[in-house]
Amino acid sequence: MKIKTKQLQNNWKVFTLTNINGVTVEVLNFGGILTKILTPDKEGRVGNIVLGYKNMLDYQHDPNYFGALIGRVAGRIQNAEFVLDGKTYRLKANEGPNHLHGGNTGLHKVIWNADPFEEEDKLGLKLSYFSKDGENGYPGNVNITVTYTLTNEDELIINYSATTDKTTVLTLTNHTYFNLSGDLKETIHQHHVTMDSSRFAQLDARLLPTGDILDVTNSTFDFRSGRALASGIHSTMDQHNIVGNGYDHYFIFDQKKPYAVVATEPVSGRVLKMKTTQPGMVMYTSNNLGSNALLNEGMSKNYLGVCFETQSSPASLHHDGFPSILLNADERYQEQTVFKFGTLMN
Ligand code: FUC
Q1: Above 90 in pLDDT, residue 10?
Q2: Does the active-site annotation cover 309?
Q3: Average pLDDT over residues 238-260
């Protein structure tokens, strides 16, 4: 086990965590960004399983939120405004009239205090950030801590914690794009995904939830017994077409299975399992990634990664039946998401 620290320009630091099996997670204090994750395939060959920029400074202007911590509110807030305790809060619109992923200067753009730690069978990085009352338009002084822990069992545990001094809205996530083929050998079409979810939020053409929660039965949204991501990418169904063909939807978990997601890439044999305390997640298949990003392994293209953005739903601000994002002054926001890396052999 070891932690390496490298100082970059602008007070940026990159931390490299390696466990006893050689699984490596690279984290940047800017945006709390996971820039690389190296894991072995079924033959033991180690490869990078996430999308990251070749040039670190490209994270400064990243429209894709690669690997970043997202907040204060992950997802879209309709018309960039909401009402809380009778008061209307206006946020900065950064996607048409809507507010996306905490705004252009959200948590993905701040420098976090970063404290590396090492314990008996795990190591990690504790990130903390104080977000002032009114920052990006949100109410409340909010103290946020996000801890990345890499265990010798090949788990990456993300613990989120926050408190506020005034009622506010908050839902945090991490925006890593996974590609289990290793070093981006293939797009994610053939990734086979099993998901513990029987309901998802219908979207309108602006990618905002209509308020209707649909049953997945007999559709390309039914991952309960597993399916290839290609089925939704190639579907002609309206819900896939409006998001640029593929998935960009909020799924609500049934909480019936030990893992909310199990993703397998058949050629490399890599398996990613995810469990979480969060009530649901946005699964985004990088439908609109485009071909302009210079990644560690070459140029980007659509469908090169899949994001499992565990979170509550900002649609709860405007519709009933969605998991709430309210946080009161006497509460602690506490959530955990665990990604477990393995192969078909273990
Ligand atoms: C996801 C999506 C969005 C957006 C962004 C980069 O969270 O919901 O549509 O494109 O990532």
Answers
A1: no
A2: yes
A3: 98
Residue nearest to atom 1 of ligand 1 (CA): 284
Determine the average pLDDT of the residues in 244-251.
98
Cβ count near 296 (within 10 Å): 15
Q: How many CB atoms lie within 10 A of CB 39?
A: 26
- Residues facing 343 on adjacent strands: 270
Residue 3 domain-assigned (yes or no): no
Q: Which of 135, 155, 265, 309 is catalytic?
A: 309
1 found inside a domain:
no
Name the residue of 59, 98, 99, 101 to mutate for ligand 1: max ligand atoms within 8 A of Cβ: 101
pLDDT at 214 over 90: yes
Q: Which residue shows structure tokens 């006497």?
A: 330
CATH classification at residue 24: 2.70.98.10
Query: Ligand 1 in contact with 250 (CB < 6 A)?
Result: no
How remote is the CA of residue 325 from the centroid of ligand 1, in Å? 18
This model's pTM is above 0.90: yes
Whole domain around residue 225: which residue ranges? Answer: 9-343
Catalytic residue status for 234: no
pLDDT by residue (tens digit) across 267-295?
A: 999 999 999 999 999 999 999 999 999 99
CA of 63, closest atom in ligand 1 = 6
Q: Of all protein residues, whose CA lies closest to atom 4 belonging to ligand 1?
A: 64
Ligand 1 in reach of 288 Cβ (< 6 A): yes
CB 201 within 8 A of CB 322: yes
Count of structural domains, the chain: 1
Does any domain span residue 41? yes
> Residue 4 domain-assigned?
no
Contact (CB, 8 A) for 44 and 283: no
Distance, CA of 42 to CA of 345 (rounded, Å): 6
Q: Over the stretch 134-168, which tens digit does the pLDDT of each residue have?
A: 999 999 999 999 999 999 999 999 999 999 999 99
